[in-house]
Amino acid sequence: MSDDAFSLAAEAADRLKARTGFDSFDVALVMGSGWVPAADVLGEPAAEIPVTDLPGFAPPAVEGHAGRIRVVEVGGRRALVFLGRTHLYEGHGADAVAHGVRTALAAGVRAVVLTNAAGGLRPETQQVGDPVLITDHLNLTAATPLVGATFVDMTEAYSARLRALALETDPGLKQGVYAALRGPTYETPAEIRMLRTLGADLVGMSTALETIAARRGLPSGETAEVLAFSLVTNLGAGLSDRHLDHEEVLEAGRAAAHRMGSLLATILPKL
Ligand code: HPA
User: Fold this and answer.
1) CATH superfamily of 3-270
2) Residue 62 has what pLDDT?
3) 202, β-bridge pairs
4) d(CA 268, CA 29)
5) Residue 172: which residues within 8 A CB-CB, separation 6 or more?
6) Distance from the CA of 267 to the center of ligand 1, in angstroms?
7) Cα separation of 260 and 244, whole Å?
8) Mean pLDDT value of segment 124-138
């Protein structure tokens, strides 16, 4: 993270306010693969723009990542909904991955909900289509959006307060530790066994760097609390007799869209 990354986010936030006609937002949601259809359940958009209208955003690279930013009023909260995100495997670097969260912070947001598609590593307890509350992460990307002596406390990267609110809303929610890998390959069965041994319950290619950016916050010291959910779109490689493909990931999202959208719509007003 350089001063440039923060000024670019500040510029993007100013443009966002001008283009949407809103000058403040309560919460940001990042809808990952599979979660985009759930955004429609949140309600009618009050505004929507392509991310490429704002400085610093890469055009969407993956089908199922719509590349748009929507404003939706949900239960008295104004949510900034990112339909899609930039991934490290796209090659634009860690600052590009963090840019959405930093833009949201610069626009005044102090709570961020990150969602993703993930491989489930615990077939004993997880099923395809389950939303899982992320309790912690293993950042195995060998990357970070921070540079310099920025010693951010990550003891509670995923806010205990927000997790308690989510569990109040849906006491049956499964919980787990998310391992973030760079991708773009899915894992080998040996890597899946390694991740299980390391204590991960979920594996995916996003979220950890955005969480780091939110916990670091702005140069002014303002940070955002993070709440995050995985949708289990498949079991990790080798844990079932199936092979993995992106279409399967998207289909699991479409099938679970209503459940995940209602979960988010119930939680948002409490954040
Ligand atoms: N591995 C990594 N990323 C993923 C997976 C997976 O099995 N499923 C959805 N995203």
Assistant:
1) Nucleoside phosphorylase domain (3.40.50.1580)
2) 61
3) 120, 178
4) 9
5) none
6) 25
7) 22
8) 95
- Which residues are known catalytic residues? 33, 65, 87, 89-90, 117, 205-206, 234, 246
Going by alpha carbons, the residue nearest to atom 9 of ligand 1 is: 118
Whole-structure pTM over 0.85, yes or no? Answer: yes
Question: What tokens appear for 262 in the block?
Answer: 């209602």
Reading the block at residue 268, the tokens are 């948002």
Which amino acid, 173? L
Confidence of residue 214 (pLDDT cuts 50, 70, 90): very high
Strand residues in the chain grouped as ranges (E): 27-31, 47-50, 68-74, 77-83, 111-120, 131-139, 174-180, 202-204, 225-235
Pocket test for ligand 1, best of 229, 244, 247 (most atoms within 8 A of CB): 244
Measured by CA distance, the residue closest to atom 3 of ligand 1 is: 204
Residue nearest to atom 10 of ligand 1 (CA): 118
Pocket of ligand 1 (CB under 6 A): 117-119, 186-187, 203-205, 233-234, 236, 244, 249
